[in-house]
Amino acid sequence: MEFSHLIAFNVALIAAIVSPGPALLVAIRTTLNSGRQSGVMIGLGLAMVASLWTLAALLGLEAIFVLFPWAYTLVKTLGAAYLIYIAYGMWVGARDPIRSTDAKAGNAFWRGVMINILNPKSVLFAAAVLVVIFPPGMTMAENALVVVNHLAVETMFYTGLAFAMSSVAVSRAYMRARLYIDRAAACVLGALGLRLLFSR
Question: Disulfide check for 186: which of 86, 87, 119, 194 has CB 3.0–4.6 Å away?
Answer without folding.
Answer: 87
